[in-house]
Here is the input.
Amino acid sequence: MKYTGAQILMKVLQDEGVDLIFGYPGAAVIDIYDELARTDIRHITVRHEQAAVHAADGYARASGKVGVCLVTSGPGATNTVTGIASAYMDSIPVVVISGQVPTHLIGNDAFQEVDIVGITRPCTKHNYLIKQTEDLARIVREAFYIARSGRPGPVLIDIPKDVAKKTVSYGVQKEVKIRSYNPTYNPHMKQLQKVIHLIKSAERPVIFAGGGVILSKSSRELTEFARKTRIPVTTSLMGLGAFPGTDPLWLGMIGMHGTYRANKSTSGCDLLIAIGTRFDDRVTGKTDAFASQANIVHIDIDPTSIRKNIGVTIPIVGDCKITLNHLNRLVDEADLGDIPKKREKWLRQIEEWKSTQQLAYEQGNVIKPQYVIEKLYELTRGEAIITTEVGQSQMWTAQYYHFDKPDHFITSGGLGCMGFGLPAAIGAQIACPDKLVVDVAGDGSIQMNIQEMATAVEYGLAVKIVILNNGYLGMVRQWQELFYEKRYAYTKIGHMPDFIKLAEAYGAAGLRATKPEEVISVLSEGLSIPKPVMMEFLVDPEECVYPMVPAGAPISEMLLV
Amino acid sequence: MIEEKSILSILVDNEPGVLSRIVGLFSGRGYNIESLCVAETIDPHVSRITIATMANLPVVEQIKKQLNKLVNVIKVHELTGTKYIERELALIKVKAKPEHRAEILRIVDIFRCKVVDVGLDHYTIEITGDEDKLSAILNLLKPIGIKEVAKTGIIAVSREPKNY
Ligand SMILES: Cc1ncc(C[n+]2csc(CCOP(=O)(O)OP(=O)(O)O)c2C)c(N)n1
Ligand SMILES: [Mg+2]
Here is the structure.
């Protein structure tokens, strides 16, 4: 049978299980849109292409499927770059399809031509320019395969207009096989035996889990492993929810704004089992001082993550889930001795760190941002899917919303991209229509993709936005306060829109709390309104996030409240 | 940690944009490229890229892993530390005043290379060899006066029976 490129694209997308696309039309993709409208794939028209990618990212994380975007050439394509970079840093499977000028015009500086493949080469897992329709089906299938396998990531496919229009024959497709791309899933068993030996002899072990545990859906296996060996667990920002935040073995988050006990125990441990993490600098602080007395076991599916920043005693390349399953079996088979007794001293020490330095704030006459998050946690019983923007609000969310489950915390971790939270919430809400989805936002960040309020209203997505309004680009102000002698260069937000009116103008609801007494009532009312709601909390303008490890310092050296 | 020269032999898909991925990886991550050679292999779908880089050991390990991570990279083989043959070709345009011509020809003879072009006041010498040989002849010709040099960069193959 003969089909156009656009028709073949639709067939392949449906074969790949795609039932939802976030996108924005333009001249170069009219042919594709024309076909899309004939399928039953749902299309969400966002208000900015950056938001399409963040929404696809949020959708991918909440659903476990590949998120898909469709944008036009030139500005449509360049607008996706930030979204792609964020998905790349956080290893999120997203496929971005961009239109391109017809092949005979490529290289001519044609109208709305950009070399998007060149631009996105360093921030995609892989990307393609399709030069002939005959290659389209294979490439699109490869793109999905690459996006979701191994260490996941975004893949961009650039489709020139004539490639979408041309008719070619299309038949049964072969299984995708790329000779130069073969992720390693199975760990070396010998290495795992060594881990068991180290666990046997360790006196002060710590498990450090990252986003890889969430991506490989292995939080159950991780929890089993930690409980069986009675090893306390910390996670990176991306790993929050991989281990229950209410478990007695939970140490809290590690790193720049990690808890006192997580940073202390990691610094003092004699065995660190790192799983699905890449040792970001916000995690390690000064690398020489990081877990400097410990044997370090590092499990990751991406060989480049291993020994990139931190020296490792036992490197293990493999899928977190498969590896943890093996480890759990080996732990069962091994005689670890009287584990509870062996851990007593170490866990007591950690308990002491915990009781001397709790996460703390004092709620006085002005609303404390931490209080808002704590109440949000209580009122949602920790069940909501939380997305965030970036800054202090993000860190307080990480500290005070005790994530018990994976896939409930969706944040731009690696790129730290303001404007992520609202579109990501939209994506998560579509993936989980029955869930409460809340974007915790700063007053600065929310304005970076605020136009997506219209998308939420249009599609009846009842996302909730909690704005912690401190009048500042607070996280930057905090650095200025602590390290630049309070010189607040351009971090005061000079003019603030009336968020309540703004919400209403979009057709959403708006609520505001100005006093501590109003926090609970605004939250409970706002969370129960069955449409998009903006809740604004006027919080203490100069509150800081503590603990804080100054950039480049050892993580044991924290500034405390 | 000391930086040493590493020669990496990289087999890649012979497709547009692949070289740019490799070069972009080096520049984006701050790795150094001393020389780079690329050409098709006997399989027209595959090209071989030979890169010489100066780096310390952990960085070389990271470079190899990063290269392997690229979807279009089929194989990365580090030749340094193994048995291999390395060659580079240079064209050297040297000033050839009458009083120097005999001396130049003597050097050419000793190095078993050849003069491939003669002008009114210059000779162009073609020489093939490893890095030591090339730098030795350049050092000898320098006092006579080198006008221009073009070098191909290093190509290399393993001496082991196995193919890479
Ligand atoms: C797109 C983007 N631009 C700039 C920054 C730098 N930055 C990091 S946090 C921050 C402040 C964010 O302010 P706000 O959203 O009000 O959050 P707060 O820290 O006040 O809670 C800024 C500007 C960033 N992370 N992302
Ligand atoms: Mg703010």
Observations:
- The mean pLDDT of chain A is 97.
- The longest helix of chain A spans residues 339-356.
- Chain A has three domains: 2-169, 189-356, 369-538.
